[in-house]
């Protein structure tokens, strides 16, 4: 089955040049290509720019630009870069810094890594008899 022509070359909101779909195997050197969205190492099927050193994993290229998340009453917007002058954000879900794409609420200053934004809200684990629920603030108040 052939890939649709429209999928081989895309225009993505995050980049001014067209992106081409390629199969990419990372070289075994220190100069590794990273996905601009998730900032993980690029490999497999990716979109890349012929004009510059920009790439997106295929799934990262398909993230919705706006969506509702249970952590906020507003619609979150996908930003191609953190909205802060220092070029980084602190994820309200995991507490670590991010420099790639982020889901952002302008009103509440909520920021989420793209991976954290799509975590399941509840999981069952063999390590604990009850379901574990995803929290966006400590359930223990100031004690934790």
Automatic annotation (TrEMBL):
DC1 domain location: 13-60, 72-117
Name of the protein described by the UniProt record: DC1 domain-containing protein
Pfam family, one: C1_2
Protein's organism: Fraxinus pennsylvanica
Keywords: Repeat
SUPFAM superfamilies given in the database record: Cysteine-rich domain
InterPro entries hit by this protein: C1-like_sf (IPR046349), DC1 (IPR004146)
Signal peptide (residue range): none
């Amino acid at each position: 089955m052939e890939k649709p022509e429209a999928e081989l070359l895309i225009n993505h909101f995050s980049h001014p040049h067209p992106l081409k779909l390629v199969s990419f195997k990372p070289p075994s050197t220190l100069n590794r290509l990273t996905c601009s969205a998730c900032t993980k190492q690029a490999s497999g099927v990716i979109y890349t720019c012929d004009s510059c050193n920009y790439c997106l994993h295929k799934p990262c290229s398909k993230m919705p630009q706006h969506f509702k998340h249970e952590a906020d009453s507003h619609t979150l917007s996908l930003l191609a870069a953190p909205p802060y002058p220092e070029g980084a954000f602190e994820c309200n879900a995991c507490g670590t810094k991010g420099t790639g794409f982020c889901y952002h609420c302008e009103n509440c200053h909520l920021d989420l890594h793209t991976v954290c934004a799509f975590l399941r809200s509840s999981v069952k684990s063999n390590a604990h008899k009850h379901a574990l629920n995803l929290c966006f603030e400590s359930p223990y108040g100031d004690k934790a």
